[in-house]
What does this fold into?
Amino acid sequence: MALAARLWLGIGIVVLSVLGVGVLDAAAQGPALRVENFYPHQAPPGQTTRFTLVVTSRDALQGAVVTPPDGVTVVDARQLGGFQGNVSWAEVRLQVARDAAPGPRTLVLELPSGRTAPVTITIPTHAPSIADLRTGPGAAGGIDVQLNATDASADLGELPHVWFVIGCKGEPLRGVVRGRTEAPANGQTVVRANLPRPPSPPASAGACDLAVRVTDTNGTDSNTLQTVVSVPASAQASWPPRSASVAPVDGGGDWLEFTSLEERFTAVFPGKPTVTETPWLTQFGAVLPARVYSVTQGQSRYTITVVDYRPVERVQVEKARACPEGANTCQGIPDWGIGYWKNDIRGAIVYAVSKFLMREVAITSIIWNGVALVQGQALQLTNEADKSQIFVGVYMHDNRLVIVEATVPAAYPAPVYFTESIGWIDDRGRAVRYQTIYVNMPDVPKPNPR
It folds into this structure.
């Protein structure tokens, strides 16, 4: 069967399977007059913060109210350009006194037709500050960045999120990767990160605009730094990489249970897995942080890839603000998520499955599967090059895409001890099994654990 036919057949099966499990809860859409999205969510003390908001009305903005108002001044509130259907963009600037009490406040917009439902903003105790941005060539044609961060409460963490925008030509590449911190010196922490190569680099080596910021463990944004970087012209690597036979390597060992509290899963590996940070490009073009947990044992390879979809809403909403007015394919609508962030989550399993179907493989089966009542897809494929077998499970739990993949030689039995070992845990490390099918989609209520 031709590759394109196999791809569409497989995607059709997956779509029917996923959509048959649940429907959107219309009540979750909220009141008609509301703030659909906004960013940032914090207003640090001693600063003036500019909030960008998506409002489900095209009425002119008349004002904004913060409650309680102590220590917060509304500098201005205005409507921005860029309408899409009944949705408009607004901007509110808030000046927060240096001695303002930290904690949550509510923000309401005033329009001729009434007030929006309140949204919550937070006044943090502090915000990280970054400076001295440096760049250089990175792995796979990417960009290495280094910057100095000052964080009064030392809660930047070991792997802070580094948010970026790279603009070369066409639509800029936006996303988040995990950075790495080094021991503080002179009150500053060095943060390093590798940014992926833009999908539309210059035809020849040329300049691209780069903007970066970081967030601490509480999700508080730093200031933004901007520079111009040189991106070499070369072919871009695909993701996920194609499966190939693995050269015999002494590795693995006794089978052991591995637990990732941060990413809320457990699994059984044939030895301690190697952990690699990698970017993941979503269906709608957002770059998200991912980790690959892998063990090679002889000619077999066992991997679990976990993609953190929690930042996708912010990435896609920011992208939508830069869209031309009326560009529906870029902006999206509330039902699909501004910037299509909801559809990015809804389709994450199907999108991951499609990546496997684009390889040079023969399809043995694509079926619905569930682990501890978390729904997903299971695939069995055969590498056309060496006839090795590929067993895949794709799931979505707590806004994390989990891809379980085992590649074994043709004559080997199915590695179900690995592929069916995946389990879910809560933030305290306790095993979780749900009362009904768990569907990880926006606006779909989550079932209670047993």
User: Anything to note?
Assistant: The radius of gyration is 23 Å.
